[in-house]
From TrEMBL:
Coiled coil spans: none
Domain (Mitochondrial splicing suppressor 51-like C-terminal): residue spans on this chain: 4-73
Originating organism: Leptocylindrus danicus
Protein name: Mitochondrial splicing suppressor 51-like C-terminal domain-containing protein
PANTHER family in the record: GH20023P (PTHR28069), PROTEIN MSS51, MITOCHONDRIAL (PTHR28069:SF1)
Superkingdom as given in the UniProt entry: Eukaryota
């Protein structure tokens, strides 16, 4: 996938119209994690807002850990707003989640729902 190349273009970081939105990216999934590492580090370094969704609690936990690792690698603290408002796992139930469950082929067929949870990381 394109994300493996970590092609993050220059953005106007002073604009209120720029954010990263990642729907069910699988950042921390064992089969996808290595492909996301450089891209996530680049995204975190931009200090732009980030909106993520996750398929399941397992998916959100893995993605949350990957996001924390990215903040650590680039030498930035996780924004306190994210930790204090959302709690340790950072995610909330998503109001626009799919109502249909599907088997996750990369996770032994476990039932998941697209966009079941969301996380918003504000600009820093």
């Amino acid at each position: 996938g394109y994300y493996k190349e970590a092609h993050i273009h220059d953005y106007d970081t002073t604009s209120n119209d720029v954010a990263f939105v990642l729907f069910n990216p699988g950042l921390g999934h064992p089969h996808l994690k290595s492909g996301w590492r450089d891209a996530m580090d680049s995204i975190v370094q931009t200090r732009l807002p980030l909106f993520l969704t996750a398929h399941s609690e397992l998916d959100q936990d893995r993605d949350w850990n990957m996001l924390r690792e990215s903040f650590e690698r680039v030498g930035r603290p996780m924004p306190l707003h994210v930790v204090h408002v959302h709690g340790d796992d950072g995610y909330r139930l998503c109001p626009f989640a799919s109502r249909m469950s599907t088997p996750d082929p990369l996770d032994g067929g476990r039932a998941v729902r697209a966009n079941a949870y969301y996380l918003y990381v504000p600009p820093a």
